From TrEMBL:
Residues 3-233 form the ABC transporter domain. The keyword Transport applies. Signal peptide: none annotated. GO terms for molecular function: ATP binding. Keywords: ATP-binding, Nucleotide-binding, Sulfate transport, Translocase, Transport. This is Sulfate ABC transporter ATP-binding protein.
């Protein structure tokens, strides 16, 4: 179901946390709330869930004003970073819990739980306890438990934040596939730009309690609204007073129109890519090139080279940033 947040403000004491926030979440979409710590992401998620009430503004879920509704009346599922599993219950009972307290028939509960455990690839672990699962398996159990009551909206607050990097990568791929199967409107909080770009249909960039930009991952990455968004959504470097993506920089031995002279400070080989660290005047910069380009130019510390943004590449002036 679609979510509309309109002109929401929220303060804790005298500290503003959300400032005139307005976003639209399309029905059936997967939307990431992305930004630095303290930017208001989790508070906005909690406002949508009904766990916090805004000072001003409205929240509509499926066209219904839910601003003052309790979480129970919003039909939302919520998964926190630290999955609050019932340690004394099996995986099956953890997933079944929400259905049991709603007094659903036992046959219906069993059918629903087993469908979900199969969906999250835990059907062979139904009789295990949370302590017998890995972190990734416990998080999948938490997602199954949230989905058991068939929420209209699924809200995830940094669901993979407590997991190691490799498990995070596996689970975000799994989350995207899961979403494509169940099509529940999903909003998740993350400060990991790679996670947001890989998983989400839409990214909402938040900073200091305000929305900086909303768009598809490609739009936000390729056409950032301001220097903050450009810096936050991937690597950048500065050349001639402009922010440029390091992979969008041309490096040559000879001067070209619009190029700047630079001195190679360090050459770092990272698999099939090479990071060339430069000194341009009194500023540090860097360029990302292929191993082939680095070998062709025979780059070594102390060499003088020339750099400029590739024609047609996106750059942002730092004036006024």
């Amino acid at each position: 179901m679609a979510i509309e947040v309109r002109d929401v403000n929220k303060s804790f004491g005298t500290t503003p946390v959300l400032r005139d926030v307005s976003i639209d979440v399309a029905s059936g979409s997967l939307t990431a709330l992305l930004g630095p710590s303290g930017g208001g992401k989790s508070t906005l998620l909690r406002v949508i869930a009904g766990l916090e009430h805004p000072d001003t503004g409205t929240v509509l879920i499926s066209g219904v004003d839910a601003t003052r509704l309790s979480p129970q009346r919003r039909n939302v599922g919520f998964v926190f970073q630290h999955y609050a599993a019932f340690k004394h219950m099996t995986v099956y009972r953890n997933v079944a819990f929400g259905l049991e307290i709603r007094k659903r028939p036992k046959a219906e509960i069993r059918k629903r739980v087993m469908e979900l455990l199969e969906l999250v690839h835990l059907e062979q672990m139904a009789d295990r306890y949370p302590s017998q699962l890995s972190g990734g398996q416990r998080q999948r159990m938490a997602l199954a438990r949230a989905l058991a009551v068939e929420p209209e909206v699924l809200l995830l607050d940094e669901p993979f934040g407590a997991l190691d990097a490799q498990v995070r990568k596996e689970l975000r791929t799994w989350l995207r596939r899961l979403h494509d199967e169940v099509h529940v409107t999903t909003v998740f909080v993350t400060h990991d730009q790679e996670e947001a770009i890989e998983v989400a249909d839409t990214i909402v960039v938040l900073a200091d309690g305000a929305v900086e930009q909303v768009g598809s991952p490609a739009d936000v990455y390729d056409n950032p609204a301001n220097p903050f968004v450009m810096r936050f959504l991937g690597p950048v470097t500065e050349i001639g007073g402009n922010l440029v993506r390091p992979h969008d920089i041309e490096i040559t031995a000879d001067p070209r129109p619009g190029s700047s002279e630079a001195t190679v400070a360090r050459v770092v080989r990272l698999g099939f890519e090479v990071r060339v660290e430069l000194q341009i005047g009194d500023r540090d910069a860097w360029v990302q090139v292929t191993r082939g380009v680095a070998e062709q130019l025979a780059l070594n510390p102390g060499d003088t080279v020339n750099v400029r943004p590739n024609p047609g590449s996106r750059s942002l002036a730092l004036t006024g940033a």
